[in-house]
Amino acid sequence: MRNDICDSPVSLTDPLLADHWNGVITGFLAHGTQTPVHLGKVLEGAPDFAMGHAARGLFSLMMGRAELIAVARDAHVAALAALTRAGGAPRERLWVQALGEWLQGRPSGAVAAMEAALRLQPRDTISAKVGHAIRFMLGDARGMRASVEAVLDAHRIHPLRGYLLGCHAFALEETGDYAAAARTGLRGLDHAPDDAWGLHAVAHVYDMTARPDAGIALIEGHTRAWDHCNNFRYHVWWHKALLHMDRGEMDVALALYDSQIRAEKTDDYRDIANATSLLMRLELEGVDVRDRWDELAAFSDARVEDGCLVFADLHYMLALSGAQKGEAAEAMCARFARDAIRHGEMPQRVADPGLAAIAGLTAFAEGRWDQAFQNLAAARVSLQSIGGSHAQRDVFERMTIDAGLRAGRVERTAQILAQRTAQRGGHEDRFAQTRGASISRARRIAAQ
Q1: Which of 352, 279, 342, 266 has the alpha carbon at shortest distance from 310?
Q2: pLDDT tens digits, the chain, 448 residues: what are they?
Q3: Closest by CA position to 261, among listed 281, 245, 278
Q4: How far, CA to CA in Å, does 283 sit from each of 254, 369, 395?
Q5: Which of 198, 207, 354, 382 lies most in the core, judged by the most C-beta atoms within 10 Å?
């Protein structure tokens, strides 16, 4: 048994297969396109490598697609059979356990298994990243930060140090420590120039602290960090579009939508989230996005019954509403009602905040502003639990505020806007400035 690049025992005796496994690790950390290629080579050459099967299953579940649950189940069966035939190191068994936990509806159990692996070997960067990714999907920002900080010392001299610093930077940003997040993310890029996650963590900082010029310069000046990526590069383009919007350059943002963000018409939920949230932001600013909703709605219509992630579902709902697909939107609401009474960690998120959120989106699409405001305001209390980042969920915050203004709920809307600004360390972006001005006008009119 040899050690991989994470200094962890791995049941691969062939040096070439061990190199491919290291390619899986570095590819996953860097959001590279060759990760599945390396994993395929590993499983082809070592069908009894249980951790490889577990990786295939875990990576499939991270895609948030109903049809890939069957792939993950097959991978779990193969992993258990491989353990029976060939055994496996403790970390490998923990990865198989993690996959089983998630398949049983307990993604938090998968996180616990990754934490157990890190206790065995705190230099195990890939287990740290997988736990980080699942926590991200669960909206557990504090957990992300605590997990990374527990293994930072073990990564002081480590070939993958930069990627862990990128995870730390993102966790710092999501917990509001913006200055430390920027320093850490930029330091991580010195160690791992191809770390798209770390770059994007710093872009988040500039978004949250209303520094669009710095954010645009960062992205344009570090293309090596993200132009090699899989579809994550579209998310970086999305960040750039948001930063241009903050400068009032709506035409640039729309052009980036056409030329980059939807350059490839995929139905990956993360790509749909990029697209729908940008179109909604643009519409809130009075931009006519014309028929761009239609192709997103076609993909979203096919996902009405998926029910893998509330975060994905709410963005599908944006597309269905934007394209005025009333029947599909009603079907989504009905499916939420069914899922909300099921047991499990994800159905809990459908019940709260999912039901209130989807009711709010429906009311918003129909112009029922007061009902939209009440439901979206109720959902925002626990909206972080659906996963994603503050920047991604901000589209729902913006809709809440605009619904409140249109409903005449001036003072409550002002409170929410103030809370949004406080979360950004007191920094007012263009949205906060324009809505603050609207609130001031409404107050003056009421006082006359």
Answers
A1: 352
A2: 799 999 999 999 999 999 999 999 999 999 999 999 999 999 999 999 999 999 999 999 999 999 999 999 999 999 999 999 999 999 999 999 999 999 999 999 999 999 999 999 999 999 999 999 999 999 999 999 999 999 999 999 999 999 999 999 999 999 999 999 999 999 999 999 999 999 999 999 999 999 999 999 999 999 999 889 999 999 999 999 999 999 999 999 999 999 999 999 999 999 999 999 999 999 999 999 999 999 999 999 999 999 999 999 999 999 999 999 999 999 999 999 999 999 999 999 999 999 999 999 999 999 999 999 999 999 999 999 999 999 999 999 999 999 999 999 999 999 999 999 999 999 999 999 999 999 999 999 988 8
A3: 278
A4: 11, 16, 11
A5: 198
**For the whole model, what pTM was predicted?**
0.97
Tell me if 195 sits within 8 A of 29, measured CB to CB.
Answer: yes
Contact residues for 151 (Cβ-Cβ < 8 A; gap 6+): 118, 122, 123, 124, 128, 164
DSSP letter at 383 equals G
Cross-strand pairs, 3: 9
Q: In which residue are the tokens 């938090």 written? A: 108
Give buried/exposed letters for 9-29 (b at 16+ CB in 10 A, else e). bbbbeeeebbebbbbbbbbbb
Helix axes 326-339, 310-322, angle to 10 degrees: 160
Q: Residue 13 is which amino acid?
A: T
Helix axes 196-208, 232-246, angle to 10 degrees: 20
Backbone torsions φ then ψ of 197, nearest 5 degrees: -65, -45
Angle of helix 125-138 versus helix 161-174 axis, rounded to 10: 20
415, HSE (Cβ side, Cα atoms, 13 Å): 5
